[in-house]
Amino acid sequence: MAGSLPAAKRPRQPSHHFPCAAPDPRRCRSPGFDDGSIWTRFEAVNLERDLKFTGIAKLFPEVCPRCRGATERGFCAGCRGDFAVVANACMRCGLPRPVMRCPQRDEPWQVDSIVAPYSYCMPLHHHVQALKFNRARKLGRALGLLLAEHLKPHRGSIDALAPVPMHPERVRLRGYNQAVEIARSVAAELAIPLLICGIRRRSAAPPQTALDARQRLKNLHGAFSIERRLEGLRVAIVDDVITTGATINALARSLRAAGAETPGAWAVARTLSERDREA
After folding, report:
1. Which H/E stretch holds residue 241?
2. Residues 193-230 as b or e (16 or more Cβ within 10 Å = b)
3. How far apart are CA 107 and CA 4, in angstroms?
4. Which one, of 92, 66, 90, 94, lies nearest residue 78 by Cα?
5. What Cα–Cα distance (Å) separates residue 50 from each residue in 33, 142, 195, 202, 268?
6. How sure is the predictor about 199, in pLDDT bands with cuts at 50, 70 and 90?
7. Sign of the CA dihedral 206, 208, 214, 218?
8. How much is the mean pLDDT over the chain?
């Protein structure tokens, strides 16, 4: 066409999306939708992987990661029954009711509800620790399936999942992020997109294990940054364990600042005090 600029000199069209950002995840789940985004590629890879896994599973039946007995998926029914469930859990904080001391007295929480169905005690404690510190990456799938069983009533109220990010240095040392490994199975089971790109941890803060609630809040101040558009999306945070709530609230605060809603935080287990276990 006369007067047109050569391809190399044509001005680039402005884009308001970040490199890994995607349009509304609800649209991405529409049949046949393909915009070349990370969402479409993610779903295609998952479909191919699931088809391969189905074929392999017929040749090599799955075994329970705890008892090594036959199982359809993840932990077998017998081993799932050995994991202590948080009875009559409060939807706001995840502790068993009646709640002896509400954690929101110290700091208003940035999530509307908590789903953490299991108590963080043995024998489940052993598997969570193995996933985090013993390079037992395959346990992420089993723990994710365990959590997903309790999340189906929440499927329609969430647009996307955000696993708690780790600092790249920690990921390099561990080899993976345990929250991402758990969230992958949850996302696949509930058919909810997974947000990873553009949500990062700014610094490798000291481990939270030996800190109390106030120290954890200070440790996580400004720990997360959001570099993608999230306006109007209902995002659930996914982690392995909720202890004081400091981590999920720090991330939720950053997600809200980026325009997202944070209806809930989902984790496999909830840390309970001796008094809470007796409640």
Report:
1. strand 234-242
2. bbbbebbbbeeebeeeeebeeeebbebbeebbebebbb
3. 60
4. 66
5. 20, 15, 20, 33, 23
6. very high
7. positive
8. 81
pLDDT over 50 at 30, yes or no: no
Instruction: Please give the share of the chain, as a percent, with pLDDT higher than 90.
Output: 61
pLDDT digits (tens, 9 = 90+) for 96-147: 999 888 888 777 899 999 999 999 999 999 999 999 999 999 999 999 999 9
What would the mean pLDDT of 175-198 be, rounded to a whole number? Answer: 95
Q: Which of 178, 111, 116 is nearest to 142 (CA)?
A: 178
Cis previous bond, 108, omega within 30: no
50 membership: H or E segment, kind and range: helix 38-59
Distance of alpha carbon 146 from alpha carbon 264, whole angstroms: 18
Q: H or E element: which one contains 248?
A: helix 246-257
User: How far apart are the C-alpha atoms of 133 and 112, rounded to whole Å?
Assistant: 30
Short-list 159, 115, 123, 133, CA closest to 268: 115
Distance between CA atoms of 115 and 269, rounded to whole angstroms? 9
Q: How many CB atoms lie within 10 A of CB 71?
A: 20
Look at residue 63 and give its three-state secondary structure. strand
Name the 3-class secondary structure at 70: strand
CA distance 260 to 262: 6
Structural domains present in the chain = 36-82 (no CATH), 85-278 (3.40.50.2020)
- 245, 271 contact by CB (below 8 A): no
